[in-house]
Amino acid sequence: MSKQNPLRPSATFPLEVLAEIHRSADQGIYEIRGFGTKRSLPNFDDLLFLGASMSRYPLEGYREKCATDVTLGTRFAEKPIELKIPITIAGMSFGSLGANAKEALGRAATGMGTSTTTGDGGMTEEERQSSKTLVYQVLPSRYGLNPDDVRRADALEIVVGQGAKPGGGGMLLGQKITERVAQMRDLPEGIDQRSACRHPDWTGPDDLEIKIQELREITDWQIPIYIKIGATRVGYDVALSVKAGADVIVLDGMQGGTAATQDVFIEQVGIPTLPALRMAVDALKDLGMHRKVQLIVSGGIRTGADIAKALAMGADAVSIGSAAMVALGCNKPVYLEDYQALGTEPGYCHHCHTGRCPVGITTQDPELEARLMPEAGARLLRNYLTTLTLEVQTLARACGKSHVLNLEPEDMVALTIEAAAMARIPLAGTDWIPGA
Amino acid sequence: MTQFDLARDSVRALNQRLHESPEGRWLVLHPDGRHCIAAGVDAPVEIGVQGHVGYYCAGMNKQAHITIKGSAGPGVAENMMSGSVRVKGNVSHCAGASAHGGLLIVEGDASARCGISLKGSDIVVAGSVGHMSAFMAQTGRLVICGDAGDFLGDSIYEAVIYVAGKIGELGADCVEKEMTPQHRQSLADLLSASGVEADPGSFRRYGSARKLYNFNIDHASDY
């Protein structure tokens, strides 16, 4: 290559696009992978807090109290969920995750006074025992769903959609369907398990309202019922969830993670968490239900700043999935040869679907799973959750708030026109909210 | 026998009593199409429902033996674990959806998606079933004494379907299989247990071709 004639890459066909076309031509099938979207999207980094000033009085950092407790499910349930921190652990299935990882999530959540969530595949004894507050998902597949577990859950979460694949069902490739996973799902070992994208016994919001009534009857109206939606037509979906009788709405933006989904689904379907959250809060306010039906937002939450901004926009809590796995060791630079065997390296790994997770999280292989012992993993996640909580409190105090739920939109400005339009937060240095 | 009149009291009150004091025999009067009647019962009680019911009657039933002397709305006996549910009339769509155990008997006809996502229950339909019945059925048996609508057994796993009448069209990966003497005996026992009179020799057996169990590009058009 001469200096006078440098190689010129194509903007239309960059290296990763060329590689994907070559792979498609070789294999004749779409790429299936884990993790979540890798494209750049408007997100909470595009917002900033203003902090206190002459007209706002800050709280003293290490002396004045800034509460973090939150109550979820106050609308109909006899026993709402009381959490010490507004950060919950998202639903991740046993099957996609190993039993040790599920137990670690439960132990950490319990230690921090928050909840964890089951996933497609049912409730394991390990996670029930390790989780003081456990949300039991009711998914289209209904794998492992049974009335005993329904009644020993602390809340139910009807999963309508997931941010990584709204409109799509679950997928667990055959290499992860071990004897125990197969038994829990009433399926043969080793087959590709394709969960349905629609529930088997209801087809729309009117049916869902009766379905929720059934679940309340079975649980004697004791526990909250959440509805989880993937971020798409958020305004309609939130209104219909309220109408159907949800106590809590879980809104999962397109940055939400997955254990195995088609890449085209992950990258091309849904809307980012930032506009989705604003649309959900608008819908709740229009109905007079903001703070009455609680809102949990998920999808790309990584830092205390993300959480503080979500709360300031009107969420009651957040949920973390991918970030919790990263805290457990996902993509950590250890066991490098195993990353290489997968054709990847730390920082780039999205091979949850293979069952060969180098750090023992998304695997059913006993040898790999032994790399993540529940107590050690729980310690890591507790530390991370503690850090997140401290960060949220730091920002809330700086804005003069004695409770993190007192954060509000006017505490923030937007850095970009896109974020200003999506979040309906004024562009920094202006009063301008595009589209408002 | 405990009588409970839904013209005087609520479904909530009925279910609360069935959950707290589940003993003996019950007769539920005036159901009048109400939803979620006898949902979540977990005891070996006998419950008679004197009329038509709405959605999700006997949902997640465990141990109870429930007889509906009328027709049932969508999702009757959904996710049943054990016990039995007998419907003297017809049933709407998604009867026995995702049911794990027990026996559902429909003396009339069943609408679409009967036995969808079936996970181990037995369902015997004396009449005919609608389209997409046994869709993604995993284990268990669906017996259809009449005809079956289109796409029967679409994407079926290890569940077994017996049909005496005509089939509109089989669903993806669902094929006819040999009716062995063991299958005929198994079917005869199930018909006997359900109290439905039919000649086991008149049935054909259907199940999974297992071509879609692991993705194969040569089968892409089957999906």
Describe the structure concisely.
The complex is a heterodimer of chains A (436) and B (223). In chain A, 34% of the residues lie in helices and 14% in strands.
Please describe what this structure looks like:
With 436 residues, chain A is α/β, with parallel strands linked by helices. Helices cover 34% and strands 14% of the residues of chain A. Chain A is built from 15 helices and 16 strands. In chain A, the strands form 5 sheets. In chain A, strands 5-15-14-12-11-8-7-6 form an 8-stranded parallel sheet. In chain A, α2 crosses α14. The longest helix of chain A is centred in the C-terminal third of the chain and has 25 residues, at 374-398. The termini of chain A are far apart. With 223 residues, chain B is of the alpha/beta class. In chain B, 11% of the residues lie in helices and 27% in strands. Chain B has helices at residues 11-20, 181-194; strands at residues 2-5, 25-29, 46-49, 65-68, 84-87, 103-106, 119-125, 139-144, 148-152, 160-163, 167-170, 174-177, 204-208. The relative contact order of chain B is 0.09. The A-B interface holds A 27-29, 141-142, 145-147, 150-151, 174, 185-188, 190-192, 194, 196, 200-202, 207, 210-211, 213-214, 217-221 and B 11-12, 15-16, 19, 35-36, 39-40, 42, 54-56, 59-60, 62, 74-75, 78-79, 81, 94, 97-98, 100, 113, 116-117, 119-120, 135-136, 138-139, 155, 157-158, 213-215, 217, 220.
Name the overall outline of chain B: elongated
Q: Report the strand count of chain B.
A: 13
Overall number of strands of chain A: 16
Helix content of chain B: 10-25%
Euclidean distance between termini CA atoms of chain B: 52 Å
**CATH hierarchy, class of chain A:** Alpha Beta
β content of chain B, as a range? 25-35%
- Computed CA radius of gyration of chain B, to the nearest angstrom: 18 Å
Q: What's the helical proportion of residues of chain A?
A: 25-40%
Largest beta-sheet details of chain B: 11 strands, mixed
Q: Strand content of the residues of chain A, in percent?
A: 5-15%
CATH third-tier fold name of chain A: TIM Barrel
Distance between the termini of chain A: 53 Å
Count of individual domains of chain A: 1
